[in-house]
Design brief:
The chain is of the alpha+beta class. 32% of the residues lie in helices and 18% in strands. The protein has a five-stranded antiparallel β-sheet. Strands 7-4-9 form a three-stranded antiparallel β-sheet, with no helix packed on it.
């Protein structure tokens, strides 16, 4: 799958483009099923969902996940981290269609790309712990000194509207290049580190909600100003993300960002070490 000239020009002009219907609903549902399988791993005695035809798409499953996150954040964190390292997720975000589209936007060949920042996001209603203020992904991902040599792609695993927390972006703001961020430290392992774009820079641009339909693909320049949207719905917002970088450019540095703040992980590692 390749992009049309108008789509490539839109990406270069605005720092953002949405490509509709890249994945079928069957393909996105396969990734949703992964979360359901992990839920059954950590809650094997909960058989209520098994009676449903497609529990991963049912509001009852979202209710179970939201309740798990509130009552047992350690187990929810273990479930979340298991999803991040699943081969299903890596295979999904490195699908040949995505590699071809990313290469078109970056003006390179798919064989010249590296990947980083693979994420399977699960954003529940009202979440503030992992909401990011205005930022540029380049501030977190320094693989290319020039943020124009990298991008982040997002696949919607269900319809995403302004009401359910679509990203808020500033079109054309990628032309600013990387700005010195205003940094706020993490308060604990459950919150996300903030590297914010200065407010005066945001005021120079208009803002839009980047709404998507299930199966759509959004591509965003690493320098683009954007922030998390507020999920005011009643269901979890599921998305799959990956960053791509041009590996053959002179400014490329192999770099891996490792977040390991999960209590479940720490306990298991130390338990294993102490038993040796």
């Amino acid at each position: 799958m390749t992009l049309g000239t108008d789509q490539i020009e839109a990406y270069k002009r605005d720092g953002y483009v949405c490509v509709p219907n890249v994945f079928t609903h069957q393909e996105t549902d396969a990734l949703r099923r992964l979360v359901y399988r992990l839920y059954r791993k950590f809650r094997p005695g909960d058989d209520q969902l098994a009676r449903l035809d497609e529990p991963w798409n049912d509001p009852a499953f979202d209710e179970k996940m939201i309740a798990l996150r509130a009552s047992d954040p350690k187990t929810f964190g273990a479930l979340y981290d298991c999803a991040q390292y699943s081969v299903d997720v890596l295979r999904f975000v490195t699908d040949p269609r995505l590699l071809s589209i990313a290469a078109d936007c970056l003006g390179d060949e798919a064989e010249n790309l590296s990947y980083s920042g693979v994420m399977y996001r699960m954003d529940p209603p009202g979440d503030q712990r992992n909401a990011l203020a205005w930022h540029q992904d380049r501030a977190y991902y320094p693989q290319n000194e020039d943020g124009n040599h990298g991008l982040v792609l997002t696949v919607a695993l269900q319809d995403i509207t302004a009401a359910t927390g679509a990203l808020v972006i500033c079109p054309k703001s990628h032309r600013e290049g990387l700005l010195a961020p205003v940094t706020a430290d993490k308060s604990d392992y459950e919150t996300t580190e903030q590297r914010q774009v200065p407010e005066e820079a945001i005021d120079r641009y208009s803002q839009i909600h980047a709404e998507m339909k299930k199966g759509d693909l959004a591509l965003m320049n690493l320098n683009l100003f954007h922030r998390s949207g507020a999920n005011d719905g009643d269901r979890i917002r599921f998305t799959a993300l990956c960053r791509f970088h041009r590996i053959m450019t002179d400014d490329y540095v192999p770099f891996g960002l490792l977040y390991q703040f999960n209590d479940f992980l720490s306990e298991r590692i130390w338990k294993t070490r102490n038993e040796r």
